[in-house]
Amino acid sequence: MIFNIGDGMKRIDVPENHFKNNLPMGTVLQLNGYDNPKFCIIKNLGLTPGFESYGAKYKVINIANGQESIKDTLGLEHINTKQDDRIKMYFTDTVLSADEIMDLIKLADQKQAADIKAKAEADQARAKELDDLKRDYKHLEQVEGSGKSSLVIAARNIRKELKAAFPDVKFSVRSESYSMGCSIHAMTDCAGSIDSQFIDLYGGARFVSPSRSVSDEAYNKVAVKMGYPQAVFNRKSGQFEGVDYDINEMIKREAWKTKF
Question: What is the pTM of this model?
Answer without folding.
Answer: 0.58
